[in-house]
Each structure stands twice: as C-alpha cells, then as structure tokens.
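The records we work with from here on pair a chain with its fold. These numbers are not coordinates but entries in a learned vocabulary of local backbone shapes. To see the layout at work, look at the sequence and tokens printed below.

. . .
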Amino acid sequence: MKNMLVTGYRANELGIFNQKHPGIPFIREAIKRRLIPLIEEGLEWVITPGQYGVDLWACEAVIELKAEYPQLKLSILAAFAGMDEKWSDEKKEYWQNLLKQVDYYGLVSKEPYSGPWQFKARDALLLRKTGGMLLVYDDEASPGSPRYFKEAAEKMREEEGYVLIQITPEDIQSVADDLQSDLIDAQSDGADWN
C-alpha cells in the first residue's frame, strides 16, 4: 500500500480543548507505532482530512517519523477553504505551523463552507486516493464523526480489499503504560543509590 488515510476523532469529541492535554502524546505515539511497519513495507504517503484532533496529531506523528524515514510524505486534503476561520488564535498558529511542514496541502472546494456536500466530496476523494485507513476509533463509545469513515472503509474492504486498521482506547492505554514503564526504568537507572 502506497497511500494511507489517517483519521479519527475531533479533539472536542475526546474532551480535549488545547494542545497541552496529557493524552495527546499517547495518541500520537500509538499512531507512530502503527505506521512504522507500514512505512517499512513501502507506505509512501500519509493523508489526513486536517480536522482539529486526531488528524493533526497524526500529522505531528508523521513529521516526527520523517526524521527516520525521509521518504515518507504527508498530505492534508481539506474539505473547504478557511477551515480554521473560527478557531482560537492558539489553534490557528498551531495549524499554520503544521501546514509549513506538509508535503502537499489541497482543498476539495476552494470556497468557504457551504454545506455537508464538501465533507462528502472530501471523504470520497480520500477513500479513492488511499489503499487503507488507520482509524482512531472506539466501537464501544458513542459513534462520533469517525463512524462515517469506518462504515465507508468496511464497505470498501468487502468490495475491493481496502485495508482498515483501528487504534482503540486499549491500544492507546497500552502505549501510555509502555511509556510510563520506560520513564520509571529511566529514572531508576539514573538513581543514585549511595
């Protein structure tokens, strides 16, 4: 697979309202851990819709991975122009900094928001341009916005073998446990026992 869509919940759906939330690094690390074997198998492009939340944390993960895998490319394919107009200044600055680091930024509609058709057109294009999806999604929680991507990916999997890889809350908790354990090990290695 050469191109993969990475998406999931919007930040507010996870109760995350700023970039300082302690869960973000665990989500980002879970995404990186799932992408590494795919990159090593030939993944070339990670494409996201660019929504504030998992999409942008995935962008951060890819930017970090590019240090070790410089061949990896990152794209944001947004639904419409001015997506960040109503965002806070902090979010806008974060967005602008990320945009400087992507390899390709495109808009499905060059107009500002005018209706749900823009999201449907974006989603259809993202699915057509990718061979698989890495989705941060909890089947046990209320559906949220990623439900539509999951349903479309499942249908495409049945029809044409589209790949769907899911990151669950348990996966993220496992990453958090691993990182916490690594931190404890590092602290005990550096402890002065005298």
